[in-house]
């Protein structure tokens, strides 16, 4: 049975923060459901609504499949824990260094996801990066950043280079490292990482086939990218999010605690 000593009384915080906590905990569990975790490493963060400069991130050591709203730790922009329930070592500072850089530079970003999946790492190690060979990949055609590997993200100086490489994109491949996806809401961030991960999986399998690849024309690639942008405007990612939540509905009471 989980330790309830850290439980939050929802009435003690704003309704907006509690909702963000529940959605972020659900996202952690969905990442686990799709097997995109790396044991206790990698992270997902979200802004605290109505509290500029404050963010929610996982308590280090809690597995993604067991994440609850109460397990999320509130930190400031420097990654310092400001949640009175937890000590200073409750958060992986190296992991939050990446997240805080993006949140500080992009006011439009509400959620940041970073993963170390086998397919994501494989594509990040390929010189040509993500190839426009699948419909999933075309969602990111000319809409994807790349950041060269500089070691474990402990150096604050890397932050400016990382956000410069992300630019105005919503997703980025961290060379020799993994994937990064953002969203203007948690549902959109999930949409971005889902399709980016699937595109990487398809690429790894296509290259493993050892046959010549077929590339759509630039005109077709750009058309699909625009169609995908229009789908976001139409809110299809919200429909997909509500459907995805049913995948973990057996544990709904748990992640909402």
UniProtKB/TrEMBL annotation:
SUPFAM superfamilies assigned: AraD/HMP-PK domain-like
Pfam family of the protein (one): Aldolase_II
Span of domain Class II aldolase/adducin N-terminal: 22-204
GO biological process, one term: monosaccharide metabolic process
Entry's Gene Ontology cellular component terms: cytoskeleton
UniProt GO MF annotations: actin filament binding
Superkingdom of source: Bacteria
Family in the record: Belongs to the aldolase class II family.
Name of this protein: Class II aldolase/adducin family protein
Species the sequence originates in: Pseudomonas denitrificans
């Amino acid at each position: 049975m989980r330790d309830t000593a850290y439980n939050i009384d929802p009435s003690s915080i704003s309704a907006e923060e509690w909702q963000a906590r529940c959605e972020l905990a659900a996202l952690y569990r969905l990442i686990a459901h799709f097997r995109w975790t790396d044991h206790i490493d990698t992270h997902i963060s979200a802004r605290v609504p109505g509290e500029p400069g404050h963010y929610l991130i996982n308590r280090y050591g809690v597995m993604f499949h067991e994440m609850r709203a109460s397990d999320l730790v509130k930190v400031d922009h420097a990654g310092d824990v400001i949640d009175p329930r937890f000590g200073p070592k409750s958060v992986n500072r190296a992991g939050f260094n990446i997240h805080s850089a993006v949140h500080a530079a992009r006011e439009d970003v509400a959620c940041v996801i970073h993963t170390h999946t086998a397919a994501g790492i494989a594509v990040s190690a390929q010189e040509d990066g993500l190839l426009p060979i699948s419909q999933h990949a075309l969602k990111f055609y000319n809409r994807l950043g790349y950041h060269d590997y500089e070691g474990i993200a402990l150096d604050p100086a890397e932050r400016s280079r990382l956000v410069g490489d992300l630019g105005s994109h919503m997703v980025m491949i961290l060379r020799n490292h993994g994937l990064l996806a953002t969203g203007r809401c948690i549902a959109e961030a999930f949409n971005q990482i889902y399709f980016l991960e699937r595109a990487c999986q398809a690429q790894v399998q296509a290259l493993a086939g050892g046959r010549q690849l077929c590339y759509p024309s630039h005109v077709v690639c750009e058309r699909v990218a625009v169609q995908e942008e229009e789908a976001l405007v139409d809110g299809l990612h919200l429909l997909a999010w509500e459907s995805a939540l049913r995948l973990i509905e057996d544990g709904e009471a748990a992640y909402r605690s």
